[in-house]
Amino acid sequence: MDFSFTEEQTLLRNMVQSFVQDNYDFDSRMKIVRSEEGMSREIWGHFAELGLLAAPFSEEMGGLDGGPIETMVIMEELGRGLVVEPYLPTIVLCGGILSRHASDAQKETHLPGIIAGEDVWALAYAEPQSRFNPADVLTSAKADGEGYVLNGTKAVVAAAPWASKLIVSARISGDQRDSDGLGLFIVDKSASGVATQDYPTVDGNRASEVTLENVSVGADALIGAAGNGLALLEEALDYGIGAVCAEAIGHMKCLNDATVEYCKTRKQFGVPIGSFQVLQHRMVDMFMEYEQSVSMTYMVNMKLTESEAERKKAAAGAKVQIGKSGRFVGQEAVQLHGGMGMTEELNVGHYFKRLTVIDTQFGNVDHHLKRFAAA
Amino acid sequence: MDIDFAPEDQAFRNEVRSFIEENYPQHLVGVDRGELSKEDFLAWHKILAKKGWAAPSWPEEFGGTGWTVTQKYIWNEESAAFGTIPPLPFGIAMLGPVIYSFGNQEQKDWVLPGILSGDTWWCQGYSEPGAGSDLAGLKTKAELDGDEYVVNGHKIWTTLAQHADWMFCLVRTSSEGKPQQGISFLLIDMNTPGIEVKPIITIDGGHEVNEVFLTDVRVPAKNLVGEQDKGWTIAKFLLGNERSGIAGVARSKKAIDRLRDIARGEMEDGAPLLDSADFARKISELEIDLTALEYTELRTLASESKGQGPGPESSILKIKGTEIQQRITELTMEAVGNYASPWVPQLDRGDNYLSIGPDHAEGASQSYFNNRKTSIYGGSNEIQRNIIAKMVLGL
């Protein structure tokens, strides 16, 4: 048993950490969030130069052969900086699906653009009626000659406004919530029949409602076998959970540090408020929630590559932990900062908002409690 | 012990219900507080003022309604059930009782009519950057110069000061003795030179609170309420009144009804979310806690009607009331699932703006974020627990 990081992993962490510290302070982050596009292509280009966009891909594809632990290290550091650039959707979700399941030809076509930082990808899987069930898919894929024709609506697709490519889940056969019959399709966002309504989200990111109207794709758009899409999708979402857990512990660490620091310096009744036992215990609870979350984050990221059953249970359990702890730490960090915690000006509220979105992303606490119980 | 309403109370309920239905401004039905202009805030108040119903909590001699405790309760319930804009607390709930309890005749004559009519918008100058939970630590200084006070200082979290004509303000007139001694209660015209109001944008994207900077602001000495250096008694009296209305039971009931409607419309695996045992349990827990709070409030009201003022027990109403409000907004956000994420501030919506997701999801997360303030303002919930520990339990 060993919970230590390798030298390479520590170097990776240090590199991301100092990049974020030097280039992504809170003011810079807010400038990016408030800019027209809402992300920085320049920062994204630096990520490519640093090799971050190549991290999880195999060496033969031009990648660095990293696994979930490397992704975890990167995501935790990006979380500390509240980085909005689309590492999760492009590299972890879509990149992950491509590297694990795409054909060699598909990889050769698509991975170089991702690794070079030229293309942003978004995973369009949720639908207006689907809530957190990825099998609940009304978007249809009808066989048409060699290829398919897609029709449907995808909801709250994170990073879609920035993306040039989408991976879309669509139903090739079966009924609305059948686990069989789904396909994952690579769709060019500029393809005829694809329309998006773009908007900001509460955590400073951007998302779109994506409608597909008679969108024709070739046979080379389908990833993996026809009808097997749900397994690929669920696996990708579990990798996504591993990544957002890491992002969230980055947020929690920053919130706890900021709160302790604030309570040491903020004086009321002639003493630092941190001298009040009731607040000390609250911060101890926040600290324990953070530590428990770190443990579950390590656990899930070590189990992503285990059997499907083990992976699912680990992901569900970790997501429940992160959902609850993130909510507690976020709410209490705001509370202990008092009115200051309520202001847009302080980073505390922004960590809190991102943690709130993470609680819902890929399914909330209730959803994963049920999934854990069933696993 | 009897909880039934008497026939005359039922008749009163019918009367106020029809009045609200017939007179409430159509364009203000179901609007969010964040979207209201100054005129919107005051529109319903002005209609009530004409009817003589603007100040249910005041004694009749000062323009109150003379309603019984039960009638006031019914009024609040009906207002909330219809979803009227909550009345602004600054004049009616906060300053009015201070003026008719501590003010001189001249002050009663010029302050109370403006509050009743809605012609004067008051804001509350209490908190300062260094004086939040420790309100008595305030530093804004007022020095007497002839027949004027010269005020210098910095107030913060001043709710809706951007609309205010006047501010009631706690100032330090002496630094002798304990911090509580040497505080005075001053009425300040917001148009006086030397006052600057700076907005604070909160995490829900809204502009409700402000900073108010006071630089050599000259205030006539006759604007002092009560005695100089004795303002702390008034400040505490006001805070006690602020807390008694803060439970918000009737509005929370309405919000739970709305939550239930939303959960009926949201689907989970093809069935309404309301049918989910997990979700239904959470709504039920909320409703039971709210029922307990309702009866706690009714017990408080009943002792109030026997002439006992709101005691430190009112801190229970503040703590439980705000915790419930926060849980309702949290569960409402949870109900709308993925559609809690979209965030399009009013100002950024062009003419062609199409709403995203179902209408009922609109504003769910903003409301959740905004409501985090309720356990901080009006004396944080930690301070309220200190009050109970000290004043009730004698610890």
Break the fold down into its secondary structure elements and pairings.
The complex is a heterodimer of chains A (375) and B (395).
Chain A: H1 7-23, H2 26-34, H3 41-50, H4 68-80, H5 87-101, H6 104-115, E1 121-124, E2 140-144, E3 147-158, E4 165-171, E5 182-188, E6 194-200, E7 206-217, E8 222-227, H7 229-265, E9 267-268, E10 271-272, H8 277-303, H9 308-337, H10 347-360, H11 365-374
Parallel strand pairs in A: 1-4
Antiparallel strand pairs in A: 2-3, 3-7, 4-5, 5-8, 6-7, 9-10
Chain B: H1 7-23, H2 38-51, H3 69-82, H4 89-102, H5 105-117, E1 122-125, E2 141-145, E3 148-156, E4 166-172, E5 183-189, E6 195-200, E7 209-220, E8 224-225, H6 231-244, H7 249-265, E9 267-268, E10 271-272, H8 277-305, H9 314-335, H10 364-371, H11 381-392
Parallel strand pairs in B: 1-4
Antiparallel strand pairs in B: 2-3, 3-7, 4-5, 5-8, 6-7, 9-10
The average pLDDT of chain A is 97
Mind summarizing the main beta sheet of chain B? 4 strands, mixed
Task: Report the sheet-strand fraction of chain A.
Answer: 15-25%
Number of helices of chain A: 11
CATH superfamily of the largest domain in chain A: Butyryl-CoA Dehydrogenase, subunit A, domain 3
Q: What characteristic shape of chain A results from the CA principal axes?
A: globular
Instruction: Assign the CATH class of the largest domain in chain A.
Output: Mainly Alpha
Terminal CA distance of chain A reads 25 Å
CATH architectural name of the largest domain in chain A: Up-down Bundle
Structural Rg of chain A:
21 Å
Tell me what you see in this structure.
The complex is a heterodimer of chains A (375) and B (395). Chain A is an alpha+beta fold and 375 residues long. Helix content of chain A is 52%, strand content 17%. Chain A contains eleven helices and ten strands. In chain A, the strands form three sheets. Chain A has a four-stranded mixed β-sheet with strand order 1-4-5-8. In chain A, strands 2-3-7-6 form a four-stranded antiparallel β-sheet, with no helix packed on it. Chain A starts with 6 loop residues before the first helix and ends with a helix. Chain A has three domains: 7-119, Acyl-CoA dehydrogenase/oxidase, N-terminal domain (Butyryl-Coa Dehydrogenase, subunit A, domain 1); 122-227, Butyryl-CoA Dehydrogenase, subunit A, domain 2 (Beta Barrel), CATH 2.40.110.10; 231-374, Butyryl-CoA Dehydrogenase, subunit A, domain 3 (Up-down Bundle), CATH 1.20.140.10. In chain A, strand 2 and strand 3 (147-158) form a beta hairpin. Chain A is globular and about 80 Å long. Chain B is α+β, with helices and mostly antiparallel strands and 395 residues long. Chain B has helices at 7-23, 38-51, 69-82, 89-102, 105-117, 231-244, 249-265, 277-305, 314-335, 364-371, 381-392; strands at 122-125, 141-145, 148-156, 166-172, 183-189, 195-200, 209-220, 224-225, 267-268, 271-272. In chain B, the strands form three sheets. Chain B has a four-stranded mixed β-sheet with strand order 1-4-5-8. In chain B, helix 7 (249-265) runs antiparallel to helix 8 (277-305). The longest helix of chain B has 29 residues, at 277-305. The radius of gyration of chain B is 22 Å and the shape is globular. Classes of the chains: A alpha+beta (375), B alpha+beta (395).
